[in-house]
Amino acid sequence: MTVSACAPTAILVRMRTRLPNLVLVGALVGAGACGDSGADPTPYVPDASLHDARVPDARVPDAGGPDARIILEPDAQIGPVDAGFDAPTIDIDADTTDASPFEDDADIDAATPVGSRFKFVINGVHLPTTSAQTRDLAHNIDGDANNRPDNAFGGILSALTQQGIDVNAANSAAIASGDNISLQLLQADNLLNSVAFWSVFQGSAQPNPDYSGNGSFTIDPAAPTDSLLPGHILGGEFAGGPGKARVKLMLLGAPIVVDLIGARVSTTLSASGCSGGKIGGGISQQSIQNQVFPALAGGFSHILAADPGCPSMCSGQALTLENLFDTDHNGTITTAEIANNTLVHALFAPDVDLVDASGAFNPLHDGVKDSLSIGFGFTCVAASYAAPGD
Fold first, then answer.
1. 82 Cβ partners below 8 Å, 6+ apart?
2. Model confidence over 364-378: pLDDT tens digits?
3. Per-residue 3-state assignment (H helix, E strand, C coil) for the chain
4. For the segment 90-140, what is each residue's pLDDT rounded down to a tens digit?
5. Rounded mean pLDDT of the chain?
6. Is 44 within 8 Å of 277 (Cβ atoms)?
7. 351 pLDDT exceeds 90?
8. Is 109 within 8 Å of 234 (Cβ atoms)?
9. pTM of this prediction?
10. For residue 263, how many other CB atoms are within 10 A of its CB?
């Protein structure tokens, strides 16, 4: 699949099938900046080397392999990168390193979380906006032997960014306002070298959250509390998973809450917080249908509603959206219209095999790609809250 910038508001998508000379062409428009442009409590610092006119393979394919590719042509216009992203320095293979002082990962998996409990709250999230960030923020979600990074959703976000869509502003605003509180728990003997366990808990929303390192928070009583990602700390860098993690993100101004499959976390640690972190995992097709598609429908419908000429005389982005997705031409794009769209099916097709036929986590077992990979960056600061097991 090749994505090229053919106009300021559209992305042409060519999906090459296994049959020679058969190409499916569609268009996906930029849906405008999402949400408020509220200040990020912990700004990132961009790396000039990340400015790139290509969106990478969401998954690096084997030579001659059939994996789809998402590429922005060299003449594409690069959208602004948020001031501040400091790309993680943790190697993608940190979670499979042979440098661990422990016998093997089985010892970690079988261990019971003990030691000190370090509590954090996420104070900054960064969705990938360039090809380099899509790779840098990826993990090897399915644990394949070639250690290939998986971040198909990040590739889509990166392509949208090149068309002028701000995928990060609404997320920064939700964190700053306290609408999105994500609490992190690390259990380890120390923060330098130790067997370690990471947990992710969705916090209750609260106004005026304190991200100074002295803030107090609560876990959402309706959220799961069984998150546990076994791993280890080496030289102050944690790498752990697979495990469970619920994450909340903003997409086109709408919240999506997904339970990641085979979640992985890596970050650089200190007593005051973490930096250069990244969270990755798989999004089930059910979550795509129930969370992502409604968010797209709502965001696209907002574009149509803002155009006074719609539905009969739409223009610009609204016209492209109306032609692509509004099949009954009534000025509203429904979740069903998104879900039944051929282009959407191509873009959000599963790229990793994480579960078996029974639905149990069993990566690369049956060869059936069942989940869409995602990876994004985060930072965190010290926090206090009552956690399970306290």
1. 40, 43, 44, 46, 126, 129, 166, 168, 169, 172
2. 999 999 999 999 999
3. CEEEEEECCEEEEEEECCCCCCEEEEEEECCCCCCCCCCCCCCECCCHHHCCCCCCCCECCCCCCCCCCCCCCCCCCCCCCCCECCCCCCCHHHHHCCCCCCCCHHHHHHCCCCCEEEEEEEEEEECCCCHHHHHHCCECCCCCCCCCCECHHHHHHHHHHCCCCCCCHHHHHHHHHCCCEEEEEEEECCCCEEEEEEEEEEECCCCCCCCCCCEECCECCCCCCCCCEEEEEECCEEEEEEEEEEEEEEECCEEEEEEEEEEEEEEEEECCEEEEEEEEEEEEHHHHHHHHHHHHHHHHHHHHHCCCCCCCCCCHHHHHHHHHHCCCCCCCCCHHHHHCCHHHHHHCCCCECCECCCCCECCCCCCCCCEEEEEEEEEEEEEECCCCCC
4. 333 333 333 344 444 445 555 677 789 999 999 999 999 999 999 999 999
5. 77
6. no
7. yes
8. no
9. 0.73
10. 26
Residue type at 297 in one-letter notation: A
